[in-house]
Structures are given as C-alpha cells and as structure tokens.
Specification:
heterodimer; A: 116 residues; mainly beta; B: mainly beta; 0% helix
Amino acid sequence: GAVVSQHPSWVICKSGTSVKIECRSLDFQATTMFWYRQFPKQSLMLMATSNEGSKATYEQGVEKDKFLINHASLTLSTLTVTSAHPEDSSFYICSASGWEKENEQFFGPGTRLTVL
Amino acid sequence: KQEVTQIPAALSVPEGENLVLNCSFTDSAIYNLQWFRQDPGKGLTSLLLIQSSQREQTSGRLNASLDKSSGRSTLYIAASQPGDSATYLCACSWGYGNKLVFGAGTILRVKS
C-alpha cells in the first residue's frame, strides 16, 4: 500500500502563534492532497483539496486566510494554522491520491493540535 | 446534498458474535465507498474499498457489501474479538479523485 506521513504528530502552542503541519507521500507521487479536521467525538470534515502546483479549494466555512495550504511538490503539502486560537484545537488528518491510485485516498496518521 | 449516515452510533457485543454495521448515502451515483477503522487518538486504517461496479469486498473476517440502488452498504464482522473494538467509519466518493464524505461512525466495543 501507499504510505503517507505527517509531522508533527502532536503540537501544543500558545494562542496567536502559527503552526505548520506537513503531509508527505513517501512512496508515490500525490497529485491531490486533502486536509481534514476532526473534533472530539465527531467524524472527519474536509477542509480543503489541494492539487500540486495550484491553489487549494476550500470547503464552505473554512477560512482560506487562516488555514494556508501549500502543495508545491508531488510529495509534500503543508497546512499552516495562522494566529491559532483554542477553538482551532483539533485532530488534523491529511490524505493523498496519485496518478496510479486516483480512486483511493491514503491517510496520514494525523496531527493533534492543542492551542492554549 | 451528498450525505453519509451510519447506524448504530454505538454497539457493544460479547466476544465471538457476528455483527453488522450499516452505512447509507443519499446520492446513489457514488464512485466508490470505503470502510475505515479508527482507534482512539489515532489516524485511519483502511479496511475495504468497494468500487461502484462491485457488490462486495472481503478481507479476512470482514465483508463489505454495496447496494447502490438502495443507497446502502454493510460491514460484516465475523467472530468478533476484543481487538476489533474501535470506531468504524464509512466514507463515499462521488467522482474520480474526489473528496470523501464521512459518516459519523459506529463505536464498537467487543467485550471479552
């Protein structure tokens, strides 16, 4: 199967700071990466879809200026939570799909963000 | 609106029982459907992927079926074990390379 990693696995930051989360496809080229958010006891909700080399498409209600997504290469996408607040505390999970696997998404292990 | 619903929300069974988890979706024109397992505080483990042209997929003690006309999928777990305890998520895609829409999940507890 295809492997997707995320870094860091967990992060604690102060309110008002920015946090960057990395998502990497380790053994395939990811033309599309997806960023999801999961609040406690809730399911995953898609935040944005990012295609390599182009701007991300954000879901309704997700602030693009707050959640900056960069997908500059076929193996790396980053999500930056700018001016984080306690309500941004959540579990962030990325997934990736590639040319040879475009009908299946492979998920990273997730990043737990806690904003104090 | 394309939505995915899972019932029951929670299920507790004794070890050894066979069980069925249900998933329904509002738009029958799905591209594929996927079942995942999520352990507390962890990421997702893909269990089974069913393409729209398929009726079922099997992996070990797991069997997932798909009925597009009725907008339903079931995940059958045979001879349940305490290690099967987790949250099971159903997710649908309605296009090639498209996003997944997740159900709220079923929390399964298998008692020893």
